């Protein structure tokens, strides 16, 4: 059974009296453990598609099935529950909470699940921070970290609750090529180690090189879907 | 707990803004505490003046006399009796008892005439109940059985009297015939009770009884207790032991209009507090909206991570509570300092009334010293925090209901 199944997905934005179609019938399936990149030019609809998969936005038509359950009819509270337990997000601008330390930023996501004891939480967060190479920077606030380190914290925050899927919207856009490489290596490592499904949106060729599946979006439609071994 | 911790950490993002918003709440609390403190001071002083100079703690009179007592008619007077006085002396907290006879007087200086209240006092016992003798600024108290009188320095000034002058007092006897008393002014007083200074003349009870031809009758007994808080219950209990038409009245009954006025003032103070804190609440609303706008991407991230609207609202409410707590602590500290200043130095009533002699019906004059009550501090502190939290609810809901996609991309 696929983790995500999109059938005839459409999204039309209303801008005043004008209807702007962002997605024009997407059919796609993503299996568990995939490391997929969605790429395409600006305005092609890749971020919209990511938002639909991430339960952040609702489609105009079509169906989204996540882990065997249709999410079309879920209300905002139910969608929040799906995101809370099953999804991790990595944003282009990291979106870390500046008043919290690296440890607390990662802990924040696991706190929402609230199924671990304080000690378990601490051990889990520290172990993940060690894995992303920030074990000795747990007490630093975001303004004391470099861009790459911030993105590592964001990745740790996305992975801490062991989600079924991590969505990353242009995760390397604000990083230099060397740091981008490190971050991508890390995500690949996590994908292989934890079997977590990763979907990226990007137009960075370096990111595409790491993907095992490449999906190209043009004018709101899938124009290419290529798997690599 | 985590959300609360995060909320408090959020307060450190813009320390200046947090402090300024908290200061608005602190000033609201300060104004309330000072106003309330002065009101407490005025109330305590007013009550003290009424008790010590006008009504004592209890009065015992014929209930028909009491109802029309302000008309100063010589009707329904009482004849002192050992039996009544024994019953009065058995009252809980009893300290002293005196007899008084109030009557209407037209005070004449040979040119002008002024209606005032004459009070016949028992010179042996009056000072055990009242403090009139402590406020003499010139001369002495009258001698028993004489036609010597004392009056307020203010009244003397108004009527152009001086110590040693004779004042002609035109009175009407019980039979409605006119009589006069040529009273020698032997003392002038200046009490903190303005109406007493301006419209009362005191002279020996026996002289008054003789000139009014009322034999040994008095208008009422006045009782001093060792605790003013006992008065209401004592009046009730004493009334139950007295037979009709005698009735006991507490100082609160005697100062009914003042008590009502002070209760109204209390409501006024609460309204002032509500208005000031509402203005402070605008500051909170502003702070929450600014915070939400600045943190829109963060809010989007929080929603993406699955945070519920309720949890986001709690976070903002926690921040507002933090601001309320900081403002509350600052306000209470500032209030304590402000009250200490007004408690030690006081404030001249003339300053509050624009330099005039107006007292707005309060039986007090001179310097008012602020009082304080722990309850006021607790109330205003809690009120400040609650108003802060409530003020944050709507803007927090607005922030929490933002579409996550629009929030993440700050559209």
Automatic annotation (TrEMBL), chain A:
Pfam families: ABC_tran
A Gene Ontology term for the protein's cellular component: membrane protein complex
ABC transporter domain boundaries: 4-229
The entry's keywords: ATP-binding, Nucleotide-binding, Transport
InterPro entries per record: AAA+_ATPase, ABC_transporter-like_ATP-bd, ABC_transporter-like_CS, MacB-like_ATP-bd, P-loop_NTPase
CDD domains membership: ABC_MJ0796_LolCDE_FtsE
Molecular-function annotations in GO: ATP binding; ATP hydrolysis activity; transmembrane transporter activity
UniProt family annotation: Belongs to the ABC transporter superfamily.
Stored PANTHER family: ABC TRANSPORTER ATP-BINDING PROTEIN MG467-RELATED, LIPOPROTEIN-RELEASING SYSTEM ATP-BINDING PROTEIN LOLD
Protein name as annotated: Putative ABC transport system ATP-binding protein
């Amino acid at each position: 059974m696929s983790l995500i199944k999109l059938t005839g997905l459409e999204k039309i934005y209303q801008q005043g009296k004008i209807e702007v179609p962002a997605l024009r019938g997407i059919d796609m399936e993503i299996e568990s453990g995939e490391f997929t990149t969605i790429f395409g030019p600006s305005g092609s609809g890749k971020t919209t598609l990511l938002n639909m998969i991430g339960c952040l936005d609702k489609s105009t038509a079509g169906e989204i099935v996540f882990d065997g359950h249709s999410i079309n009819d879920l209300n905002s509270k139910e969608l929040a529950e799906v995101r809370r337990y099953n999804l991790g997000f990595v944003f282009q601008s990291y979106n870390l909470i500046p008043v919290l330390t690296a440890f607390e930023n990662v802990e924040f996501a696991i706190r929402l699940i609230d199924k671990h004891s304080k000690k378990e939480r601490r051990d889990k967060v520290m172990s993940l921070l060690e894995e992303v190479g920030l074990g000795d920077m747990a007490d630093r606030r975001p303004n004391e970290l470099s861009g790459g380190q911030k993105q590592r914290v964001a990745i740790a925050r996305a992975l801490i609750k062991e989600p079924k899927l991590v969505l990353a919207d242009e995760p390397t856009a604000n990083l230099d090529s060397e740091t981008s490489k490190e971050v991508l290596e890390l995500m690949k490592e996590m994908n292989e180690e934890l079997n977590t499904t990763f979907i990226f949106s990007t137009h960075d060729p370096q990111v595409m090189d790491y993907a095992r599946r490449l999906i190209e979006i043009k004018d709101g439609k899938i124009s290419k879907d290529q798997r690599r071994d | 707990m985590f959300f609360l911790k995060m909320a408090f950490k959020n307060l450190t993002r813009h320390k200046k803004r947090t402090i300024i918003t908290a200061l608005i709440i602190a000033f609201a609390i300060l104004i309330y505490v000072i106003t309330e403190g002065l009101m407490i001071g005025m109330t305590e002083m007013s009550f003290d003046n009424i008790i010590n100079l006008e009504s004592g703690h209890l009065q015992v009179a014929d209930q028909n006399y009491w109802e029309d007592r302000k008309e100063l008619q010589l009707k329904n007077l009482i004849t002192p009796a050992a039996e009544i006085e024994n019953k009065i002396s058995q009252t809980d907290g009893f300290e002293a008892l005196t007899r008084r006879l109030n009557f209407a007087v037209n005070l004449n200086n040979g040119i002008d005439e002024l209606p005032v209240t004459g009070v016949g006092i028992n010179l042996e016992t009056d000072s055990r109940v009242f403090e009139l003798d402590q406020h003499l600024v010139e001369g002495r108290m009258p001698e028993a059985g004489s036609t010597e009188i004392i009056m307020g320095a203010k009244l003397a000034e108004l009527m152009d009297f001086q110590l040693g002058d004779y004042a002609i007092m035109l009175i009407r006897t019980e039979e409605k015939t006119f009589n006069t008393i040529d009273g020698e002014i032997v003392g002038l007083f200046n009490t903190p009770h303005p109406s007493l200074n301006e419209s009362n003349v005191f002279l020996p009870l026996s002289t008054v009884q003789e000139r009014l031809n009322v034999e040994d009758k008095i208008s009422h007994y006045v009782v001093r207790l060792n605790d003013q808080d006992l008065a209401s219950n004592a009046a009730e209990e004493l009334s139950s032991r007295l037979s009709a038409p005698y009735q006991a009245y507490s100082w609160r009954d005697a100062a009914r209009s003042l008590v009502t006025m002070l209760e109204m003032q209390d409501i006024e103070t609460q309204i002032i507090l509500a208005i000031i804190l509402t203005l402070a609440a605008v500051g909170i609303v502003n702070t929450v909206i600014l915070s939400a706008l600045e943190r829109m991407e963060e809010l989007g991230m929080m929603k993406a991570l699955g945070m519920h609207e309720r949890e986001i609202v709690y976070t903002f409410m926690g921040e507002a509570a933090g601001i309320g707590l900081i403002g509350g602590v600052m306000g209470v500290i500032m209030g304590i300092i402000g009250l200490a200043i007004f408690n030690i130095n006081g404030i001249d009533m003339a300053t509050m009334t624009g330099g005039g002699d107006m007292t707005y019906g309060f039986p007090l004059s001179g310097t008012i010293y602020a009082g304080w009550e722990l309850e006021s501090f607790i109330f205003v502190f809690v009120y400040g925090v609650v108003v802060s939290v409530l003020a944050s609810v709507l803007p927090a809901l607005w922030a929490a209901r933002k579409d996550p996609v629009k929030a993440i991309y700050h559209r």
